[in-house]
Amino acid sequence: MPYKGFKSITVREEVYDKLWKIWEERKDKCVREGITSFSSFITNLLFEVAENYEAIERAEKINRLLEDPDVYNAFMEALQHLKKAHLSPRFEHFNCYEDHVTLWDRKLERLVNVYFNGKPPYVMCELCGRSDCEHVQFALSLPKVVETLRARGWRIEEGKIKYVPP
Ligand SMILES: [Zn+2]
């Protein structure tokens, strides 16, 4: 990379000291990456800042926005919502009926019915039209469902139907 020098850049002593400290801390890593001197470290740093200037500006804009308590609260609320949606399991057991169980699918944001029947394939997801989808798997992992079906003579092992009495 050809060099173009600034005639002189003077920085405040504290800035220089801070930069020098960072350089000292990261020297080993920098050298491995081919940045072998303090001046090339600074050049590199300036380059990174120039490259990311827009991103930094955007971040500052966001910070300014967040100074407004209403915006801040709305943002935090949205964040909590996202976090909750991310952390909570995809399915929620909603209701148990005589011949089916209703689940809440958080990803699809809808209710899904899984039906049980004495005839093959014995279990059927209303949404997927399958007996081996995630909804069926979740339904068959619910203790309440397993208990109810076992009481009717079904054998369920590891979320799979092994036997249904005729
Ligand atoms: Zn399904």
Q: Outline the biggest β-sheet.
A: 4 strands, antiparallel
Strand order of the largest sheet: 1-2-3-4
Structural class: alpha+beta
Q: How far is the N terminus from the C terminus?
A: 80 Å
What's the number of structural domains? 2
List keywords for this structure.
166 residues; alpha+beta; 2 domains; two-stranded antiparallel sheet; 6 strands; binds zinc ion
Could you walk me through the main structural features you see in this protein, from its secondary elements to its overall organization?
By secondary structure, this protein is of the alpha+beta class. The protein folds into two domains: 13-84, no CATH class; 91-163, no CATH class. 49% of the residues lie in helices and 17% in strands. It has six helices and six strands; from the N terminus they run ααααββββααββ. It has a four-stranded antiparallel sheet. A two-stranded antiparallel ribbon has the order 5-6. It is elongated. The chain binds zinc ion. Zinc ion binds next to loops. Zinc ion is lined by residues 112, 125, 127-128, 130, 133, 135.
Structure in a nutshell:
With 166 residues, the protein is α+β, with helices and mostly antiparallel strands. The chain has six helices and six strands; from the N terminus they run H-H-H-H-E-E-E-E-H-H-E-E.
